[in-house]
C-alpha cells in the first residue's frame, strides 16, 4: 500500500520536470469557455507548428483561469524563466508568431499578450495580477484552475493535493473533521446555504454500511457554470472533499451526479477517479488505514428538478427525477434506502483546504455568517464575463464594475438577475448589497449557485420575468399540484402582461397564486417559483404598470416575435442579455 510520502515524492519529481525541465511547458485553457471559443483548434495548430519546427515541448490542457472573455488562453513557461507569459483571444493564425517570437527567440510579441504571472517580470509584458479579474480574486475551490492539468493527478498532489485527507486520516478523528467544518462556518454553496458541518453530523449515527456521500452537479441554472468549471479544471479537489466527507460521516461510497451530455466534466471526473484508484487514494485501506471509500459517476437527463436532493436520489436509482415527501430525511433514508448526505460540487471543493489550513483560516475570510468565498458566474451585458472566486462581503457593485468592467457601449445598468431562475431581480440601486447569503435574501434575491446576469437599460423587467417563469413552468416535474398548476397560471399571466393584454387584478392574482405555491409546494422549485416575480414587482413595478395601464413596453423588448401568441405554451429562453456570455 503506497504511503502519502511516496506518492508525493513521485508527484514532486513530475512537477520539477514541468517547471524546471529543458522543454517549454505550454498550457491551453480547454474548459467550456475555451472550448466554445475555439481552443481545440488552437491546440491542433500549436502541436502542428511545434512538430513542423521540431520543437520539443510539454503541452497540457488546463481549466479556466476565470477571465473567460480572453479565451482561448495560452500560457508559456520557457526553460530558464520563472514566470509564465499569457496570450489571450488566440486564433490558430496567431500560433506561428507566438512559437517563433516567444518560444523560440524569447521576444514578447506586440499583440495578444495579456501579461506575465510569477515573481520575475517579463520585459515588455504587464503584470497579469493587475487585471481585476485576476488580482481581485481569492481562489480556494478554484486555486488550481488554469494552473494544473486536470488529467494529471501528480500535478494536483504536487500542489498540496490530498494533503487534507492524509491529515484527516492520520491526525484526526471523524468527529474532529466535522467540528473543523462546523467551526469554519462553511455553508452549502448549492443555494440553500445550510451549515455544512451540521449537515454532515446528521448522518454520523445512522446505521451502515453502506452509507453514501452524494455530490450534486446537475447545475441546470441558466447563467451558472461554476460546478462544471471545477470538474473541468480540477476534479481532484472535489474527489478529495468527497473522501473527507466520507471519513467524517463514516460513509462507504460516494456518487458524483452530473447532468447527461456535459462531456467535459463527465470525462475529466471519470479520469480523475480512475487515477485516484490507480495510486491508492480510493478503494480499500486508504493510506494504510482502516478507512475504505469508493466513488463513481451517475448521470441524469435534462431535468432541472433533478438538482433537488431527493429528486437526485430518485434519478440515481433510475427513476423519474421527482422529489420525495419528507420525512424520512436523506440522512436516515436516502439513495436505495440507505443513509445519504448531499452537497454541491463547490461545497465539497472547499473541504481539502479547510482541513489542511484550519477552520480559523477559512472563517477569517468573508463577512458575518457568510465565510469564505463566492464563485460568481458573471454574464450578460457586461464588459468582462467570467468565472470569478471572490471573498464573501464584496459588494455587487465591486463585482459588476470593478471586476466585470461594468456595462459596455456607454449604456446604464438597469438590473441584476441573481441566483438562477428561482432567484431574484435586483435594480441598480442594489449595488451596495454585499455577497452575503442573509443580506441578499433580505434584499429580495438569493446568491444561489452564483450566477449573476447583468441587464442594461434596454432590458424589460417584464420580458425577463416572463422568461424566468417560462423556464420554471417547463422544468416543473408536475408531481405536486401547487407547482404544476401554479406555474401554468403564473406563465399565463406574465405572458398576458408582456403582450399588453392584461386583465384587471392580474397582479393581485399572481401574488395569490405565488403565496399558495410557497405554502404548499412539495419542494423548493414551487416554493421559490414566485420569487423572481415578487422581486421584479418590488424593483420594477413601473415596467409592469406601463404594460398594464399604458399598453406599451418601455424598452420595446416585448414587441418582438418571441412573445407567445395567446393560448400557446412556449419554452423560450430567448432573453440572453448581451452577446458575451462566459
Examine the coordinates and then state which fold CATH places here, giving the name of the CATH topology of the largest domain. Answer: Rossmann fold
The structural domain count equals 4
CATH class of the largest domain: Alpha Beta
How are the strands of the biggest sheet laid out side by side? 2-1-3-4-5
Number of helices: 22
Give the number of DSSP strands. 16
What is the average of the pLDDT values?
A: 93
Please compute the radius of gyration using only Cα atoms.
24 Å
Shape: globular
Helix content, binned percent: 40-55%
The CATH superfamily of the largest domain is identified as NADH-ubiquinone oxidoreductase 51kDa subunit
Distance between the termini: 43 Å
CATH architecture assignment of the largest domain: 3-Layer(aba) Sandwich
Strand content: 5-15%
| Class by SSE composition | alpha/beta
Question: Which spans have pLDDT < 50 for at least 5 consecutive residues?
Answer: 567-582
Description:
This protein has 582 residues and is α/β, with parallel strands linked by helices. It is built from 22 helices and 16 strands. It has helices spanning 4-20, 32-37, 39-53, 95-104, 132-135, 153-158, 163-171, 174-184, 196-201, 226-233, 235-249, 263-278, 309-316, 345-357, 359-363, 396-403, 437-442, 461-475, 481-498, 506-520, 524-527, 531-549, and strands at residues 25-29, 58-62, 74-77, 84-87, 113-117, 212-217, 253-259, 294-300, 340-344, 366-367, 370-371, 373-380, 386-391, 413-418, 424-427, 451-456. Helix 12 (263-278) links the parallel strand 7 and strand 8 (294-300). Helix 10 (226-233) packs across helix 12, helix 18 (461-475) crosses helix 22 (531-549) and helix 19 (481-498) runs antiparallel to helix 20 (506-520). The model is unreliable at 567-582 (pLDDT under 50).
